[in-house]
Amino acid sequence: MCRFDPIASIIHNHGGTLPTLWKITLEILRQRQNQPPHVELFELEVDPDENVLDCIERVWAFHDRSLTFRHACHHSTCGACGMRVNGVEKLTCITPVREVTHPNGVLRVEPLRNFPVLSDLVVDVSGFFQRMEQTQLSSIAPLSQAKLPFEPNPPTIWQGQRLIDCIECGLCVSACPAANTSTSYFGPAVLAAAQHVYRQTNNPTVMQLVNCADGLWRCHSAYECSAVCPSNVDPAWRIMDMRRATVAHSLRNIFKRPNQKVAP
Amino acid sequence: MNSRPSILIIGAGFTGCALAHDLSLRGVNVTVLERGEIASGTSGRTHGLLHSGARYCVTDPEAAIECITESRILSQIAAQCIEYNGGLFVALNDQDLAYSAAFEQGAQATGIPIERLSPQQALQREPNLNPNLLAAYTVPDGTFDPLRLALAFAATARQNGAVFLTHHEVQALHADGQGRITKLTAWNRHTGQQQTFTADLIISATGAWAGQIAAMVGASTVVKPTPGIMVAYNQRLVHHAINRLCPPDDGDILIPQRRMVVIGTTSFEVENPDYIPITAEQTEQMQRAAEALVPAIANTQRRGVYMSARPLIVSGSSGRSLSRTFKCYDHEALDGLPGLITITGGKATTCRIMAEKTADLACQKLGLSAPCRTKDVPLRSYRLYYS
Fold it and tell me: What is the ipTM of this complex?
């Protein structure tokens, strides 16, 4: 069914050594806007060290120009290319074919769960980004605040800043069983963002934002979010930490003397 | 008579998004058509170096001056997605060291502030640098998140009324009765439907693909897609952008980004930039170049390998000697095709000034006198693109 796939000749034309190629079947869950989904198969020859996103881009470039998918940086800094690969959430730009299938194997690629599908592998991330924005999480932080608190400080006397770990890829939302049961649940990334902001600022507003049934208390500790996070955010740990902070804050409020100001 | 003039922009990379922002601020009715997502072509895959211009201060002073001016502006208006930690140029051998004089001269001539460091001082700032370095200079480089930079421009443009239609691939440009290009047909890849759009002007901001759009109406081909490879490693071994002190060459820049470092890049020409394969040879070449700057790379896992097609301006020469500066083509003057403008070339760092010059030309054609305001308008949060 597939047209001539020029991977071998292209590599050759670019002066590259031809790697050992694998034949695989790419099963892509496809969907036009507002129509039911169906599976389409593409037989491909791939370099097992290629990433899954490269295979998908090649299907678009040489086999089917109608295929839609999200991608930008191709090296795990933007978070656009999250998909489900053989049933597991992956950042497809850093997922080598070799890690998720075998020669003559199948690669099933589906859009992320718990987001509306716009078409094929493209999900609508609007609601997710709006909630992230409500936390006011800055994407830049001093080096000492960008890491997880139990990690050592960078071994340098020089203090700079960096882009934080969360790349807003939505893998955690897709993997979360609680998000699968409730569309109003904030989801792991937003709660982790709130924790990050709270630990940076002690601002009680962000605590109020997530101290609700659709926030911190909907999580039932499946830890799937931390299992699939490609970027060291550890949302599950952050949610538990934020619960601790919220309970401590509430207890202090209960026991505070009248007219006494309570530190956040 | 309809109130506001309208412009269709093809392409939502850095240039298209910055142009939509600029024109919206000037009161133009803007619609952006993008065949993929925001920044899913060259822009998203850019190396991520916010150039101080020092890389080009000897070989391409015009591009260097653009870079130092624009990197300062971007660090003000787009601080939300920039690690502005500065950079180092390091000399690893006598040949590199011999480049010092030209480098100091070039930096001075282009107004880029540099400071010479002894090897000890450089190693104090960056302990993972090659301990055999001979000299180093500080430069005001930074690194940025490519997608978020494009989204920040697009978010601000949207606030001012611009409409972004992603997954809309332009298939044909049409002339009206007077030979003016005012209409295009786009394929909505979400629905499979075709739709036509009309406007007072059409601007192609398609970078490495500008030749393909121009060819639709027989306009001059102006750009040479010149891809390069980049390799990302799984540890943040440096906090400055590390440049090799030498003329622009393969694998001469190693940047930090989040928990990674990324080395780049190579340079070769292709006809069609839709898909560019990654060869083991180029990956190994980058690995060696990265290890020369920071030996600890040898023990660091690779995280990603990717290609991006630069849009370099055709000027008779090739590859590394092509200018890194940009060009705005008025196809009315060039090809007798009124209504169509192409903006291409340039670098991510210079996207704002590219947009300004293009918007100047567009406004002149539309008889608008609104001045450019993008230097002074901080960009909205990138997340609000999705609001």
Answer: 0.95
